[in-house]
Design brief:
The structure is a single chain. Helix 2 runs parallel beside helix 3 and helix 4 packs parallel to helix 5. The strands form 2 sheets. The protein has a 4-stranded mixed beta sheet. Strands 2-3-4 form a 3-stranded parallel beta sheet, with helices on both faces. It has 2 domains: 82 residues, no CATH class; 64 residues, no CATH class. The chain has 168 residues and is an alpha/beta fold. Helices cover 30% and strands 21% of the residues. Helix 3 links the parallel strand 3 and strand 4. The protein contains 5 helices and 7 strands; from the N terminus they run H-E-E-H-E-H-E-H-E-H-E-E.
Amino acid sequence: MSEEIVNKVAQSQLVTLDLESYYPAEEIAVFDLKPHLFMELILKEKEFRVALQNNDWSVYQNKVVAVTCTADAIIPMWAYMLVGSYLQPVAKDVIFGDEQAARQKLFVQNIEAIDTEPFADKKIVVKGCGDIPIGEFAYLAVTKKLMPVAKSLMYGEPCSTVPIYKKK
């Protein structure tokens, strides 16, 4: 007589949250101030303004734009504001930093937008492995988001979890 195999993981009522599903899908373009600087080092206001006026801003249409300066130059704050004034009408979003910083900001925004109602008083496992490398910042953000509503919070896979938080 054989015993029935019981899937205890399926019966555990654990809710798995896969952070990959919140990874930003938007295309990110980078606007680097460096090519618009005199000798790629010095910002001369008149030339900088002309360079921006002559720039083809349509390439940033409906994209998230990361604004950065890869030159080791002193850039006045107004220069970023001026670039932003050109990008605002065409870009989906404008973020200061390189592509990685922009992707991180979008990722955190996606996590902060999670509807916590389906997770209320649930045992949640935040998936630990996947195809996309997920940074530490995302795990901190999801902990901050879900801890106030979760019954318990764990890291890993349903069959092997690391306890993080349990409501008292």
